[in-house]
């Protein structure tokens, strides 16, 4: 039996592995190890690298970014190696779900941007570079991390389509939808002009 062309065994195995990898709360762990306190009580309360940066510790923010991206890359690389391309797509979706809704934090996770990038770097590094260029360009112009993430998630499926990665359009669209869902609050703040800029500290 298959669902959307994916075998139930692939969904079960790589869905579980991807989710568990994604649910490792890198930012929370690093913040505690580096004596920065409970990240969920700092700034926006988010567990990602952008909020870690608001503590003023750039090293911790960089390590969180790397760790969260590594989760995404590891999930798709492992799935491809052991089970093939279909497994890769399931693992990619599951790892982002795990980061955004980790069971260990009562399903209150991060926005998923670093893990999203990790998935595409692991899947096809040129796509990871394209995504990075889109993000960096938008971030440099707008100074909003959220806006950069939204623009990247919106354009990457289009880029993939024209670069011949049409067989992975499902993966790109699902991940893009997740990014938008996790940024609904940011979208409202961007519209209202109250969104916090990159590196800017916010009150708890």
Automatic annotation (TrEMBL):
Signal peptide interval: none
Domain of life (superkingdom): Bacteria
Pathway as given in its UniProt record: Lipid metabolism; phospholipid metabolism
Membrane topology: Multi-pass membrane protein
Catalytic reaction(s) noted: an acyl phosphate + sn-glycerol 3-phosphate = a 1-acyl-sn-glycero-3-phosphate + phosphate
Subcellular localization: Cell membrane
Transmembrane spans: 6-31, 60-80, 86-104, 116-135, 155-181
Keywords: Acyltransferase, Cell membrane, Lipid biosynthesis, Lipid metabolism, Membrane, Phospholipid biosynthesis, Phospholipid metabolism, Transferase, Transmembrane, Transmembrane helix
Main enzyme class: transferase
Pfam families noted in UniProt: G3P_acyltransf (PF02660)
EC number: 2.3.1.275
GO MF annotation: an example: glycerol-3-phosphate O-acyltransferase activity
Matches recorded under SMART domains: G3P_acyltransf (SM01207)
PANTHER family: GLYCEROL-3-PHOSPHATE ACYLTRANSFERASE-RELATED, INNER MEMBRANE PROTEIN YGIH
Similarity comment: family membership: Belongs to the PlsY family.
Function: Catalyzes the transfer of an acyl group from acyl-phosphate (acyl-PO(4)) to glycerol-3-phosphate (G3P) to form lysophosphatidic acid (LPA). This enzyme utilizes acyl-phosphate as fatty acyl donor, but not acyl-CoA or acyl-ACP.
Assembly with partners or alone: Probably interacts with PlsX.
Name assigned to this protein: Glycerol-3-phosphate acyltransferase
Annotated source species: Yoonia phaeophyticola
């Amino acid at each position: 039996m298959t669902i959307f062309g994916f075998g139930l065994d692939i969904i079960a195995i790589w869905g579980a592995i991807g989710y568990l990898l994604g649910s490792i709360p890198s930012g929370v762990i690093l913040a505690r190890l580096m004596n920065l306190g409970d990240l969920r009580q700092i700034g926006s309360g988010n567990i990602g690298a952008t909020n870690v940066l608001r503590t003023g510790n750039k090293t911790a923010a960089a390590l969180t970014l790397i760790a969260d991206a590594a989760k995404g890359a590891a999930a798709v690389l492992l799935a491809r190696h052991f089970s093939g391309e279909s497994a890769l797509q399931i693992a990619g979706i599951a790892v982002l779900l795990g980061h955004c809704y980790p069971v260990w934090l009562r399903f209150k996770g991060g926005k998923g941007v670093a893990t999203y990038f990790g998935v595409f770097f692991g899947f096809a590094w040129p796509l990871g570079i394209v995504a990075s260029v889109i993000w960096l360009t938008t971030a440099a112009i707008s100074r909003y991390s959220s806006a950069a993430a939204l623009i990247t998630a919106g354009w990457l499926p289009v880029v993939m389509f024209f670069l011949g990665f049409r067989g992975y359009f499902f993966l790109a669209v699902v991940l893009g939808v997740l990014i938008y869902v996790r940024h609904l609050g940011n979208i409202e703040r961007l519209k209202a002009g109250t969104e916090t800029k990159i590196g800017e500290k916010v009150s708890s």
